Write a sequence for this structure.
């Protein structure tokens, strides 16, 4: 009797398990169905919306947005700016921030895409009529009054003649010249120094790189417990490459006599590597700096009073000062000059940074393109970048905004959703946001702008996904990531030079010449766009 | 003649009936087996179709159906990997790390189980056992975090301690030197998994007939010879099975596993020359870049090596000890 009972129990249990397994399998399908349903309802709401002329705040459409920047500081659609955008456009965003750089490729492969994608990578993969709506098609259909200037459309137009996104953070040379208060964004390198220690050392003169190295030496001698220089893991090279007059960053090209070459071939690269190696051999930087798992460790060193100099972006001193104040530290930071040599040069090859894609899964393409149209308007750009007019800022007669907050106060900026909803924006409005007279960041940006030239045509050299060039470039960059550290951390200068030569040999093997050949061909083609 | 066929038919029907009857008796057991097989079919066998990607020019924008529609390219991606300038280094790292783990991590739980078995104080034995298998439940991300606070050259407790008591002049860069990575990986894996595997061997030891120990003792065997002549032969079967399983998964790190987690989390730009293994390489160059075909080809090479290893170790075990997996 009992055994029969337990048998029955077993049977029913295993039956339940089978059912569970089967339903789990079909789960994927059913969610697909539901999204199809969603598309239907989306269609009907959009029909409603077109009946009412103004974007009715009653029927707010919630669209999903995938942000392909794992470090993104805002993760939710909230704050004054987000609310205002919803009020103006009738669109709410449900945000997912990428966990790593492998997520988007997987989403593309599985076809499981959100309504909108905001990304700086995989641009050419998403620019595909099977995956995304082209903006020109949607503009023609739903927003014929959405006008985008021809340079922007030209640099974002793909080989099939359509453009699927417009990247933000771009401005033409002319725009830069006519907007004297737009200086540039935080994507420029800078180094902050501890003011108290500088004073203690008698504020030594800082005119050349040698002065800086000498200064680090003095710090090491007087304060052996301090790390002379700590570097953000993403901003290790940039400042020093600028000082050496290398007109390109890692992974990009520079121009010489009408031809382009990959940055590795720059004649000054070896000097730069020797310099970095010197910093390490003298004990001015730590080997561990190259093993930082995240970009917060360097901040902790600086703010926690364990380092003298902190290399990051132009706003590093102000950000460190705010954090130091919060933790009650008694010291402050001061920016070092942006240019420490006659040769110092920055070439802005930017064609924009990140762009928004409207995927074929989009529930409501009409509202999506209208959202972007709003963000692209002067009102929209100012709202996203400066905040709510009157509440967060007012116009200055000179033509830049008077902000009622500190742009370096990231807690305030992020909680209000200022800046980060720039799904469509440009470098001018971003530059104006950064212009606060008298601040260290503005000073550093002024110095940087003075040594900057603009060559977006170089930025147009972009390898296409799944192409032979892309494979070569990926392998080259991966190889350099591994080999450069061996040069930095070499025990002697001879060893550094030897490691440098090994790296160059590897680069040749991987196909540096082939890559440059292709780059030159593309460069000649793209130059025409800017004439 | 007629009679004969009739009889054989009868016999056949009888046999079928018997079979059915036996099957009915085992319905519950068959359901369990069926469930397991269904699981394997869905989660282990069906995804294997993806392997065809390794031989095709697959691009992710074509979606899942692209796996079937893209062009065949033969061994192109296999050649690309073999021709890579780091191929030798990566394969060396994978093999060295794997074999080091077998050499050090395989005997550790056996020795530990035997040691524990000799402990007479029951409460102490239980305490040690619990403490030793707890790390198994900590994820590698956390273990690496712990390792950082202990071993870092700048803030690590261990380095500070050793400098203070004068063992070393300068902190050792455990985490940022290519020379320490293998030791670090094997050491932390043993620390994390040894206690867990000890459980299996302790269970095997518990299954040995106590009469054998008594007999050995009467014959004048001391502790060591009892271990050598009774305990070890008693768990030989378990050891061989675990060894075969270990060798089958050797490229993933053997019974302590985690080659990938360690290489990915403990690896950095500085120790890359010893920490980059096939799996992390496939992950970085293949997946991050959306080159699924290339990643599939790299991993397939590794899988083939693993299959060969498991067959050969099974054969050797069969020859040497008489017990084997299949």
């Amino acid at each position: 009797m009992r055994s029969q009972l337990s048998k029955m129990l077993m049977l029913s249990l295993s039956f339940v398990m089978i059912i569970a397994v089967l339903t789990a399998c079909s789960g994927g399908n059913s969610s697909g169905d539901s999204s199809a349903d969603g598309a239907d309802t989306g269609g009907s709401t959009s029909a409603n919306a077109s009946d009412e002329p103004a974007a009715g705040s009653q029927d707010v459409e919630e669209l999903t947005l995938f942000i392909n920047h794992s470090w993104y500081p805002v993760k939710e659609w909230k704050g004054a700016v987000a609310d205002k955008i919803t009020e103006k456009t009738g669109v709410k965003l449900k945000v997912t921030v990428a966990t790593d750089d492998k997520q988007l490729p997987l989403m593309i492969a599985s076809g499981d895409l959100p309504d909108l994608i905001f990304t700086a990578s995989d641009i050419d993969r998403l620019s595909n009529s099977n995956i995304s709506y082209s903006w020109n098609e949607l503009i023609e259909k739903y927003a014929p009054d959405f006008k985008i200037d021809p340079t922007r459309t030209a640099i974002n137009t793909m080989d099939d003649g359509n453009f699927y996104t417009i990247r933000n953070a771009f401005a033409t040379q002319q725009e830069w010249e006519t907007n004297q208060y737009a200086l540039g964004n935080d994507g420029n390198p800078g180094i902050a120094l501890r003011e108290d220690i500088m004073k203690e050392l008698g504020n030594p003169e800082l005119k050349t790189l040698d002065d800086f190295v000498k200064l680090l030496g003095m710090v090491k001698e007087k304060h052996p417990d301090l790390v002379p220089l700590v570097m953000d893991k993403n901003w290790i090279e940039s400042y020093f490459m600028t000082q050496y007059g290398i007109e390109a960053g890692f992974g990009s090209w520079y121009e010489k006599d009408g031809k382009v070459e990959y940055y590795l071939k720059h004649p000054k690269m070896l000097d730069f590597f020797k310099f970095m190696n010197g910093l390490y051999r003298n004990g001015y930087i730590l080997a561990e700096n190259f093993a930082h798992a995240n970009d917060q460790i360097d901040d902790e060193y600086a703010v926690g009073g364990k380092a003298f100099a902190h290399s990051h972006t132009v706003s590093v001193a102000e950000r460190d000062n705010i954090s130091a104040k919060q933790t009650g530290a008694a010291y402050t930071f001061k920016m070092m000059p942006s240019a420490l040599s006659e040769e110092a040069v920055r070439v802005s090859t930017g064609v924009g940074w990140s762009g928004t894609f409207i995927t074929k899964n989009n529930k409501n393409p009409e509202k999506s393109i209208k959202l972007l149209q709003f963000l692209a308007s002067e009102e929209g750009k100012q709202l996203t970048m400066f905040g709510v007019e009157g509440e967060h800022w007012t116009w200055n007669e000179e033509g830049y905004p008077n902000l009622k907050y500190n742009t370096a106060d990231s807690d305030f900026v992020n909680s209000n959703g200022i800046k980060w909803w720039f799904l469509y924006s440009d470098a001018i409005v971003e530059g104006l946001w950064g212009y606060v007279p008298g601040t260290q960041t503005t000073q550093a940006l002024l110095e940087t702008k003075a040594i900057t030239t603009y060559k977006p045509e170089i930025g147009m050299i972009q390898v296409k996904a799944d192409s032979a060039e892309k494979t070569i470039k990926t392998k080259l960059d991966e190889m350099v990531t591994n080999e450069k550290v061996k040069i930095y951390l070499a025990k002697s200068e001879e060893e550094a030079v030897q490691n440098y030569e090994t790296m160059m040999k590897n680069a040749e093997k991987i196909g540096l010449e082939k890559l440059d050949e292709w780059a030159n061909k593309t460069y000649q083609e793209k130059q025409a766009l800017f004439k | 003649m007629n009679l004969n066929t009739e009889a054989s038919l009868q016999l056949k029907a009888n046999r079928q009936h018997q079979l059915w009857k036996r099957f009915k008796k085992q319905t519950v057991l068959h359901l369990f087996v069926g469930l397991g097989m269904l699981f394997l079919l869905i989660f282990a066998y069906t995804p294997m179709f993806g392997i065809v990607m390794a031989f095709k020019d697959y691009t992710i924008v074509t979606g899942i159906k692209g796996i079937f529609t893209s062009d065949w390219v033969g061994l192109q991606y296999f050649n690309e990997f073999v021709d890579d300038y780091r191929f030798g280094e990566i394969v060396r790292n994978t093999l060295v790390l794997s074999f080091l783990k077998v050499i050090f991590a395989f005997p550790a739980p056996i020795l530990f189980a035997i040691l524990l078995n000799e402990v007479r104080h029951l409460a102490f034995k239980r305490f040690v056992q619990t403490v030793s298998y707890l790390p198994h439940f900590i994820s590698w991300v956390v273990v690496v975090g712990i390792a950082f606070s202990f071993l870092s050259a700048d803030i690590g407790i261990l380095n500070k301690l050793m400098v203070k008591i004068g063992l070393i002049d300068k902190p050792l860069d455990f985490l940022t030197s290519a020379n320490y990575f293998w030791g670090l990986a094997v050491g932390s894996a043993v620390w994390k998994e040894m206690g867990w595997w000890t459980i299996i061997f302790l269970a095997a030891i518990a299954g040995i007939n106590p009469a054998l120990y008594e007999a050995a003792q009467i014959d004048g065997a001391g502790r060591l010879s009892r271990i050598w002549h009774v305990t070890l032969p008693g768990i030989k079967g378990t050891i061989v099975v675990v060894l075969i399983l270990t060798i089958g998964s050797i490229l993933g790190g053997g019974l302590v596993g985690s080659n990938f987690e360690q290489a990915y989390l403990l690896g950095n730009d500085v120790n890359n020359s010893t920490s980059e293994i096939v799996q992390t390489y496939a992950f970085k160059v293949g997946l991050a870049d959306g080159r699924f075909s290339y990643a599939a080809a790299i991993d397939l090479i590794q899988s083939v090596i693993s299959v060969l290893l498991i067959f050969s170790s099974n054969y050797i075990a069969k020859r040497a000890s008489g017990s084997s997996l299949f």
Remarks:
- The CA atoms of residues 8 and 409 of chain A lie 66 Å apart.
- Chain A has three domains: 1-51, 54-175+353-434, 190-349+454-530.
- The longest strand of chain A covers residues 61-67.
- The first helix of chain A runs from residue 2 to 51.
